[in-house]
Amino acid sequence: MDKVYSDLLNILDDNKVKKDEPLKRYTFTKTGGNADYFVLPTTYQEVQNVIKYANRNNIEFTILGNGSNIIIKDGGIRGIVLNLTKLTNISLESNKIIVQSGATIIDTSRFALENHLTGLEFACGIPGTVGGAVYMNAGAYGGEVSDVIASVLVLTRDGEILNLNKNDLELEYRNSSISREGHLVLEATFDLKEGDYNKIKEKMDELTFLRESKQPLEYPSCGSVFKRPPGMFAGKLIQDSGLQGKQIGDAQVSTKHAGFIVNVGEATASDYVKLIRYVQETVKSKFSVELETEVKIIGEELIS
Questions:
Q1: Residue 294 is a catalytic residue
Q2: Of 176, 179, 224, 254, which residue is the catalytic one?
Q3: How many helices (H) and strands (E) in the chain?
Q4: Would residue 187 show up in a list of annotated catalytic residues for this protein?
Q5: Same domain for 96 and 74?
Q6: Which of 83, 114, 135 is the last residue of a domain?
Q7: What is the pLDDT of residues 66-88, one digit of tens each?
């Protein structure tokens, strides 16, 4: 047994530590290589212990939520991958919802509905975790995390726990101080307003219908691939470039919504990345617009 694996078993139960784990099991695109060490902590203390251990021993570590807005390259990820999807507790204090980072933002919006609280309707179809949603200030249909966030509990790369208020987060379009500093979200508090259950549900049903009718949910994908250029829509630029249906390997620009790239078979991460670059180059040559990726691309290339 190697030393890192043995050390991790001293920090976490053996059912929370995996070696050479295929990451395609944890991404929405169903692509990605292996993690050297894959851990599933269930408490903040365990997360902190793993990060402090990694820092003491100069071991790289990567945070992974539910893999909805990420492409992991085919060579996988070196060091330790911390998957936080076991941190899922959601609780209520007056009109505030306190939620651990591994809970999905969809479940959080449903919890808000059950408690007759309005403000999170926009999130009812966003497939990421709360941690990921806060990290990138996720949004949809005219709403975003910055509209309702009150405070966030984070763990710094050095293993220090900080409580950040809304102003500390410097939230902007698909960005935050959390992503710039590389903090790890442990918990978020959303400040909502009392509302009418039926009106909240009606809005959520409407947004769910829009999402299901417009997005290619029948295939694996990483969601919306590109950020919206100022005053434009990425999907329309891609569509107007004649790229719908364009395929590299089994990665395809969706014929249903050009802002999505779907896995229509056995796509690799390399197929995805090549297609993303091709789309960017084509749109730039036709419209002089540089499309910036919203999806995060991490990991290492496969060495053949």
A1: yes
A2: 224
A3: 8, 19
A4: no
A5: no
A6: 83
A7: 999 999 999 999 999 999 999 99
